[in-house]
Design goal:
Oligomer: single chain
Shape: globular
Protein name: TNG6 protein
Radius of gyration: 16 Å
Number of helices: 6
Pfam family, one: ARM_TANGO6
GO biological process, one term: protein secretion
Length: 130
Amino acid sequence: PAWLRRLCGQLLSERLMRPNGVQAVVRGIMEGTGAGGTGAEAAAVDWRKCDTVAKILASCPQQCLSFEDYYRLVCPQILDLLHIQDKLTARQFQRVATTTLLTMAKEHPQLAEKHLLQPLLAPLLRCSET
């Protein structure tokens, strides 16, 4: 029902914009991925889940006042997904992070540059300036 979809969307959005909310949502959705099925079958399910999670993360919720606010709150958390230590989890989180980054860069290039690409490339730029 529509009311349940709205309520779930609202709860998901609120969680995403809290500290460590992105990681909690990704962990919740990706839990159990990578186990069972044949190698190719499990990999396909894994990719589809990663793409779905990335689409969710790249979508600015209706409750958010602006895309700028959403990107400011969520993008640092997306970049944090690149630093997960556990190897299996890291692979999935990196897929989600890169797909989200690409989606955000296509949809809102200036915001993605400011909140994702500049922080991601800052160490490289510092090295090239010296």
